[in-house]
Specification:
This protein is of the alpha+beta class and 334 residues long. Helix content is 29%, strand content 24%.
Length: 334
């Protein structure tokens, strides 16, 4: 007879309250931002889950700031997050991959002491083929005076983040976040509409089983990078060969590596000399999470969280995941 004693059921709301209690000085604003993001995640989940059924697939026809044809789900996710967050009085402004500049808080609402930066639906080109996509978010403190968030508030190094997380719309919907007290995963139970604690205090193995990289750029990489990839594959040096797992959706690749150990690499190449991934709302939040889980995140020459941003949508090379595998990258790429 298998013992089915249920583990304790902890909702994300309960968990956030318990974490807040460890900070008597907390105003509760950050907790409320996390609640509101969890709500937005549930609303996006509904749309993503039914996308194939209500003919929401296919592009919305117009291009976003990245020059990519926007998928309707991109537009929906972007608007859902903005509408869930803009009236709460906890934010001074927002920035999104889908918007050119800062998204201001409408004049009729109070503003708050945090700024939210997010990628509403990363990997959206995968939507039509049912590959997992994700939402990534980063919360930084407002550091300027005055009502509204400014570019100075947005362009802070990742080490200034007070919270970061992602939602992965995969075989189940999971939300993983950190406020600097460990990285914790919650799985959505659709029957009750609650995110339940399923992965407390995630720890990423020091060396990874999986290597996530797009080899088609091999001829465009620097020789040091090609040598690094040979090391990961066990073709040179003494590292045990890694298995290749590349979904082409950052959140899906990152999440698998976070839980099972692995390295995601998107080196700079001659086509993308600054790398492809975005610093502020992709690399920084995932770097905060992976460091809280005992991993590392680097540009290859610098800790991601120490990079001083200069532009909202700036790109960065990215090596992120198991600590020893990122250290190997830093030893060779530099
Ligand atoms: P490539 C998806 O478009 C994305 O932004 C990330 O989610 C993903 O990791 C990366 O690009 C894939 O890029 O050049 O390998 O297709």
């Amino acid at each position: 007879m298998v013992n089915h004693t249920p583990t304790s059921v902890v909702t994300i709301e309960r968990f956030i309250i318990e974490q807040e209690r460890q900070h008597p000085e907390a105003s509760g604003d950050l907790s409320n931002i996390l609640y509101d993001l969890a709500l937005a995640a549930k609303m996006i989940t509904n749309k993503v889950r039914s996308a194939g059924l209500v003919d929401i697939l296919g592009s919305a026809g117009h291009e976003n700031v990245q020059g990519e044809i926007q998928q309707k789900l991109d537009v929906f996710a972007n608007e859902t997050i903005i509408k869930a967050m803009d009236h709460t009085g906890r934010l001074c402004g927002m920035a999104s991959e889908e918007e050119d500049g800062i998204i201001p808080i409408p004049g009729q609402f109070r503003t708050g002491k945090y700024a939210l930066l997010f990628d509403p639906l990363d990997g959206s080109s995968n939507i039509d083929v049912n590959v997992p996509v994700g939402t990534i978010f980063s919360v930084v403190p407002k550091i300027t005076r005055g009502r509204d968030g400014t570019m100075e508030d947005m362009l802070q190094p990742g080490r200034r983040q007070v919270a970061a997380g992602y939602v992965i719309y995969g075989s189940s919907t999971m939300l993983v976040y950190t406020t600097g007290q460990g990285a914790h995963g919650f799985t959505l139970d659709p029957s009750i509409g609650e995110f339940l604690l399923s992965h407390p205090n995630i720890q990423i193995p020091a060396t990874g089983r999986y290597l996530s990289v797009n080899d088609s750029y091999q001829q465009l990489w620097h020789e040091n990078v090609r040598q690094l990839m040979r090391r990961y594959r066990g073709l040179e040096g003494d590292r045990k060969p890694m298995s290749i797992r590349y979904v082409g959706s950052l959140v899906a690749d990152f999440h698998r590596n976070l839980l099972g150990g692995g390295l995601f690499a998107y080196p700079r190449n001659q086509k993308s000399p600054e790398g492809k991934l975005r610093l502020l709302y992709e690399a920084n939040p995932l770097a905060f999470i992976v460091e809280q889980a005992g991993g590392r995140a680097s540009t290859g020459t610098q800790r991601i969280l120490d990079v001083q941003p200069t532009e909202l949508h700036q790109r960065t090379p990215l090596y992120i995941g198991s600590r020893e595998d990122v250290e190997l990258a830093e030893s060779l790429v530099a």
